[in-house]
Design a protein that fits this description.
The protein has helices at 5-16, 25-31, 36-60, 67-74, 77-109, 115-131, 141-167, 169-172, 186-196, 216-245, 258-303, 309-312, 316-333, 336-362, 369-392, 396-419. With 435 residues, it is mainly α. α5 crosses α6 (115-131).
Length: 435
């Protein structure tokens, strides 16, 4: 049975989750000087333009659903390797950021237990479940999505009721969450946007279903753009109401879990507890699945001889334990904000590569000058520019750490190729058939 566009959209929403902006709300609101809603919407523009590039490439090359393959095919294996190495950073960091937020939320629920205990418990359990053969919580994704949706709808209703009861319609309708002339600072908003983009990470998962899609050349681009649009609009409404309910962004008890405090304000302890429990389950599920994915990627890169095969190839259990140790060290050493910024460093390099690949692949094929200017050049280059501005707005520490990671990848490849002629960059190059 072929998947319809609606099926692809649901899959994408399951991947991203309707609680996506909860984690970044407090930090992004402080960074943007009270303009987190604008940051969410700006990030949405960049993601929608990039989503169209992903969708077009996935529809043309349905067997190559990744930025790594697209960039390799459009340019060369070296460029593909750089993007692939940046993506590998994301695979390493996602278990860390998920574990940190799960531990932060658990600490808010049971404050007597130290943060490091919760981090160790979350990561340790994720490692044990992976070693025991329980690969993920994916079977429960739809049920979890349904519960999360119910809780978000409850928050939206209770927040709207709270604001209307206190201030009438004036309390519900305000431009301040998007533009407050007293605190507006474009540089601050762009810095917050570089963090708010974390809300959309995972939209590209829709492209992996291109082979199963009905009319993929139409449905995959439409679904990827729709997932970004729906995620952005829902997230903007969530943070808009949260900003209005708690307008003083300087007074959060904890910036990293500020959204939980808003839920307690508008819905009392019941909504606070429900949101916290769902956050813990969702974050643990992400940590569990991303740990397994990182272990598979590590083994795959070793089989391609990009990493030492003797150390990593065919050693799934060892890889899981090793990555668990890395996750534990990272979670105890870094903050939620720092890890989120590192994810976006790698992700936006990949997004820029995909936008350039889209132009490189489609521009020479089209004989329609309107399509050349608007769709084959204009849209992907605009996506590249937006992504570059967001990537450039990342804090200096994230840029330095990400650059060190890229340099380490380049050095290890040079070293590997220097000691053995058997190391070859993968050339997963899509065919050059007409679009």
């Amino acid at each position: 049975m072929k998947l319809k566009t609606a099926d692809l959209i649901i899959y994408g929403l399951v991947l991203i989750q309707p609680i996506a902006p909860v984690g970044i709300f407090g930090i992004a609101n402080v960074l943007s000087h009270g303009h987190v809603t604008s940051s969410i919407l700006l990030a949405m523009v960049a993601m929608m333009l990039t989503a169209l590039s992903y969708g077009r490439l996935a529809a043309l090359y349905p067997s190559s659903g990744s930025a790594y393959s697209y960039v390799t095919g459009a340019f060369n294996p070296i460029a593909g390797y750089i993007v692939g190495w940046a993506m590998f950073l994301d695979y390493l960091i996602i278990p860390i950021v998920s574990s940190i937020y799960a531990a932060l939320t658990l600490h808010r629920l049971i404050e007597g237990v130290p943060f490091w205990v919760w981090v160790s418990l979350v990561i340790g359990l994720a490692v044990l479940l992976n070693l025991g053969g329980i690969s993920s919580l994916a079977r429960a994704n739809k049920a979890l999505l349904a519960v999360m949706t119910v809780i978000i709808v409850a928050f939206l209703y209770l927040a709207a009721h709270f604001l209307y009861s206190a201030h009438g319609w004036h309390g519900l309708l305000s431009i301040k969450p998007m533009y407050d002339p007293a605190t507006f600072d474009l540089r601050a908003i762009m810095t917050a946007t570089s963090l708010a983009a974390l809300t959309y990470i995972g939209f590209d998962g829709v492209t992996t279903l291109a082979e199963e899609a009905n009319n993929p050349r139409r449905s995959v681009p439409l679904a990827t753009v729709s997932v970004c649009l729906l995620t952005g609009l829902l997230s903007a409404v969530e943070v808009y109401l949260a900003q209005l309910a708690w307008p003083d962004y300087h007074s959060y008890p904890n910036n990293e879990t500020a959204f939980l405090d808003v839920t307690r304000l508008v819905g009392g302890p019941a909504l606070f507890t429900a949101m916290a429990v769902i956050l813990v389950v969702a974050c643990f599920g992400t940590a569990l699945t991303s740990l397994a994915g990182a272990a598979r990627l590590l083994g795959g890169m070793a089989r391609d001889n990009v990493l030492p095969a003797r150390w990593f190839a065919g050693r799934t259990a060892r890889n899981i334990v090793l990555l668990g140790v890395v996750a534990l060290i990272g979670a105890l050493s870094l903050s939620y904000e720092q890890t989120a910024e590192l994810i976006n460093y790698g992700a936006f390099l990949a997004f820029m590569g995909v936008n350039l690949a889209c132009t490189r692949v489609f521009l020479p094929r089209s004989r329609n000058w309107t399509q050349k200017v608007l769709l084959d050049a204009g849209v992907p280059l605009a996506g590249f520019l937006f992504c570059f501005l967001i990537w450039w707005s990342l804090p200096r520490a994230a840029q330095i750490a990400g650059s060190v990671w890229l340099a380490a990848g380049a050095l290890q490849l040079v070293f590997r190729r220097g000691i053995t002629r058997s190391v070859e960059l993968p050339t997963d190059r899509p065919s050059r058939r007409g679009a």
